[in-house]
Design goal:
Blueprint: E1 2-6, E2 14-18, E3 28-38, H1 40-47, E4 63-71, E5 83-86, H2 99-102, E6 117-121, E7 125-127, H3 134-137, H4 140-153, E8 161-165, H5 169-180, E9 184-189, H6 192-199, E10 205-208, H7 215-222, E11 228-233, H8 237-246, E12 247-255, H9 268-273, E13 277-280, H10 286-299, E14 305-309, H11 313-322, E15 328-332
Parallel strand pairs: 8-9, 8-11, 9-10, 11-12, 12-13, 14-15
Antiparallel strand pairs: 1-2, 3-4, 3-6, 3-15, 4-5, 5-7
């Protein structure tokens, strides 16, 4: 089989290699991968910033979709030809996260999806919605499940207000899922063009934060001084202070990313004064994935992204590093 592997850290060091095609053992499934998508975690993993002690070589990427090629002894859940996607954490099937369930994350603890064949445990897969292509389904395991659970953390009702940051994968999925719930969505971006595109998908109001860096003041203006019910926070410590100022009293910040460097000290007083809920989101379980897929199927929702050939992995990573993309970056495995 062919695969991209991290042999040493750095985008330029990512290697396209030949490996023996794996054989599924008892309880395992061999999947022919048709498409893979990148997350910011994958970029950090490849650069050695996510886990400098990562065991190398490692096949990166948590997100991929394909079809079952063969099954090992005892497998009853799947048969050849079925369309599937891998779950982010192979050991987290349902319920709350635990230390044991957190082990086995694709592209980190174990080899990921950036190969033309992978072997996964039969419980580490979900069926993909019939109306989605492999490329669209490959965007779901990390970014979509994360966005789904971020919105769940806000206990939103129709008419609630959500703030999304930027127009990357998690943020665009949060926009799409929020509109399914009848929720008002505000958004900030560094690009007027991206904001216009997001408004075409239902974004109710947008602000260019390069031109108007005090976006928390804008959010308060947009909500009559009350603040939003939920911020889907992808920046981290660099934006957390403004996010806390932008929520209503008793509002929620769903912390899903760490894209921005520190701009101020950790704003503990804001958490107290707003009686804020700061909720960390680490993707989700297989059960979360299945529930999200039911909603995607019912709404006939289609993910948004840009498609490339998988030989362009380095170029796509550089595009992600620039932050010039909209939605997801997807590789077609040929």
């Amino acid at each position: 089989m062919r695969a991209w592997q991290i042999s040493s850290f750095g985008i330029d060091s990512l290697e396209f290699v030949e490996r023996p095609t794996p054989t599924p053992g008892p309880g395992e499934v061999l999947v022919g991968v048709r498409a893979v998508s990148f997350n910011y975690r994958d970029l950090m993993m490849i650069k050695g910033l996510y886990n400098p002690k990562l065991g190398l070589p490692r096949i990166p990427c948590s997100d991929g979709a394909g079809e079952v090629v063969a099954v090992g002894a005892g497998v009853t859940s799947w048969k050849a030809g079925e369309r599937v996607a891998g779950i982010f954490m192979q050991n987290w099937h349902e319920g709350s996260l635990s230390a044991a369930k957190a082990r086995g994350a694709l592209g980190g603890d174990i080899d990921g999806m950036l190969a033309d064949y992978v072997v996964l445990n039969e419980a580490g897969l979900v069926p993909i919605p019939d109306h989605l292509s492999f490329q669209e389904a490959a965007t779901l395991p990390c970014a979509a499940v994360t966005a789904w659970n971020a919105l769940a953390a806000g206990d939103l009702k129709p008419g609630s207000t959500v703030l999304i940051q930027g127009t990357g994968g998690v943020s665009i999925f949060a926009l799409q899922f929020a509109k399914l719930r009848g929720v008002r969505v505000l958004g900030i971006s560094s690009s007027d063009e991206k904001l216009e595109r997001a408004q075409g998908m239902g974004l109710d109001a947008g602000l260019n934060y390069y031109d108007n860096p005090s976006w928390d003041h804008w959010v308060l203006d947009q909500t009559g001084g009350e603040g939003v019910d939920l911020v889907v926070e992808v920046g981290g410590i660099g934006t957390l202070g403004r996010s806390l100022r932008a929520i209503r009293c008793g509002g929620t910040v769903a912390q899903v990313g760490v894209l921005a460097s520190a701009a101020e000290s950790f704003p503990v007083p804001l958490i107290l004064h707003k009686m804020a809920r700061l909720h960390g989101i680490y993707v989700g379980s297989r059960q979360d994935f299945l529930e999200m897929n039911r909603a995607i199927t019912f709404a006939h929702l289609r993910p948004v992204g840009e498609e490339f050939h998988w030989t362009q992995a380095r170029e796509v990573l550089e595009r992600m590093e620039e932050g010039s993309h909209f939605g997801k970056l997807v590789l077609t495995v040929a």
